[in-house]
């Protein structure tokens, strides 16, 4: 195999594939990427960790068709430092690859093509969604996914697309993020979609959609979900198991509401959280007429207090929260008004963006006992 490719195109595609490739080297071949020719002027780069697979295609000048399997990390490191020029690849004996760019020459060890895992067959993408909308779904929910590996069914996002609209839900047992758009129901088709998408897949999708303005294609089978983002295809195993009944968690009778400027509230919580306990991140909300008093304290280090003006007229209420949970929501909240809805100091509270009419975005967080 032999081909030439621009340095920028090579580095860009390797950057995407890099995130998928197996880092722990439990199966050595998974630290490699497969490069193969497709037709006369396209090469395909494939990386996989067996759970997620990314296939990228880009233009190249192919002199001899074929395929090669080489180290993803080493190739990406080389691509990053090459001069802005054409890069020439040639497959040598014993699966080694020669890489030349102007005066630089590298030889990279490879492995047999036959040892690389088979890629699941791609089903034609029957569902189309705006990439910007799907990225917003991920950005506003991914932070609430649990990081505990033992909680398998919570280690991804529940994504539902049907005639009523599109919804994404995540939870770690202490908080829940929910986002919905009704107008996506037109894209659902006959079958719709209901899948548990792993966290890693969502993280890679945010990279793929960051600079992509078109539509993404979606399809699913019994074990996989497929995302077509322009010339790139991301294939992911779906999680199995029973996702919690999220509708039971969303409060129905929170009858008290306080309105805040999201930026002002976020900055106040960030400052007060500096004196919160390092493990619990506990802060206290004291709501009074048109004022929220936020405080934190630790016996060893001291305390902090701050007041934030609010539109609230009701009885005085004290609620404890994990400051990090509130900050996670406010970090992705757009500028504008945030509605803080609650019942009392012992029940789950709900935050939502009052100024966002495009999305139904809710964030439910459990209170802490102080």
Describe the structure in your own words.
This protein is an alpha+beta fold and 370 residues long. It folds into three domains: 2-115, Roll (DNA Polymerase III, Chain A, domain 2), CATH 3.10.150; 127-247, DNA Polymerase III, subunit A, domain 2 (DNA Polymerase III, Chain A, domain 2); 251-365, DNA Polymerase III, Chain A, domain 2. Helices cover 18% and strands 42% of the residues. It contains seven helices and 26 strands. The protein has helices at residues 7-18, 72-81, 131-139, 199-209, 246-249, 262-272, 323-332; strands at residues 2-6, 32-38, 42-48, 52-59, 61-64, 67-71, 86-91, 97-101, 104-108, 110-111, 127-130, 156-162, 165-171, 175-181, 193-198, 215-220, 224-229, 232-237, 256-261, 282-288, 291-298, 302-309, 317-322, 337-342, 349-353, 360-365. A hairpin with a 3-residue loop joins strand 2 (32-38) and strand 3 (42-48). Helix 1 (7-18) packs antiparallel against helix 2 (72-81), helix 3 (131-139) crosses helix 4 and helix 6 runs antiparallel to helix 7. The mean pLDDT is 94.
């Amino acid at each position: 195999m032999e081909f030439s490719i621009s340095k920028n195109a090579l580095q860009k595609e390797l950057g995407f594939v890099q995130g998928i490739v197996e880092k722990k080297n439990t199966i050595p071949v998974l630290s490699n990427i497969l490069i193969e020719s497709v037709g006369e002027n396209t090469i395909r780069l494939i990386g996989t960790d067996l759970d997620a697979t990314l296939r990228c295609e880009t233009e190249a000048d192919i002199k001899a068709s074929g395929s090669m399997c080489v180290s993803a990390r080493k190739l990406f490191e080389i691509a990053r430092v090459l001069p802005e020029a054409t890069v020439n690849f040639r497959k040598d004996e014993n699966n080694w690859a020669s890489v030349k760019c102007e005066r630089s020459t590298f030889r990279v060890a490879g492995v047999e093509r036959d040892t690389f895992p088979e890629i699941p067959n791609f089903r034609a993408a029957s569902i189309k969604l705006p990439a910007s909308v799907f990225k917003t779904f991920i950005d506003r929910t991914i932070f609430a996914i649990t990081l505990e590996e033992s909680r398998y069914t919570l280690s991804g996002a529940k994504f539902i697309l049907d005639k009523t609209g599109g919804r994404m839900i995540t939870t770690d047992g202490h908080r829940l993020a929910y986002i919905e758009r009704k107008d996506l129901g037109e894209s659902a088709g006959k079958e719709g979609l209901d899948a548990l998408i792993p966290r890693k897949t969502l993280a890679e999708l945010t990279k793929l959609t960051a600079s992509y303005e078109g539509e993404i294609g979606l399809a699913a089978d019994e074990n996989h979900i497929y995302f077509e983002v322009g010339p790139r295809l991301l294939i992911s195993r779906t999680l199995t198991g029973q996702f919690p009944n999220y509708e039971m968690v969303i409060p129905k009778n929170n009858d008290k509401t306080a309105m805040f400027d999201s930026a002002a509230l976020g900055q106040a919580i960030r400052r007060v959280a500096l004196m919160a306990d390092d493990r619990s991140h506990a802060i206290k909300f004291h709501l009074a007429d048109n004022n929220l008093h936020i405080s934190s304290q630790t016996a060893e280090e001291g305390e902090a207090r701050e007041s934030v003006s609010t539109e609230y007229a009701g009885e005085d209420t004290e609620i404890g929260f994990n400051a990090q949970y509130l900050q996670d929501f406010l970090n992705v909240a757009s500028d504008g008004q945030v509605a803080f809805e609650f019942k009392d100091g012992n029940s789950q509270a709900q935050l939502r963006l009052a100024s966002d009419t495009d999305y139904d975005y809710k964030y439910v967080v459990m209170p802490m006992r102080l």
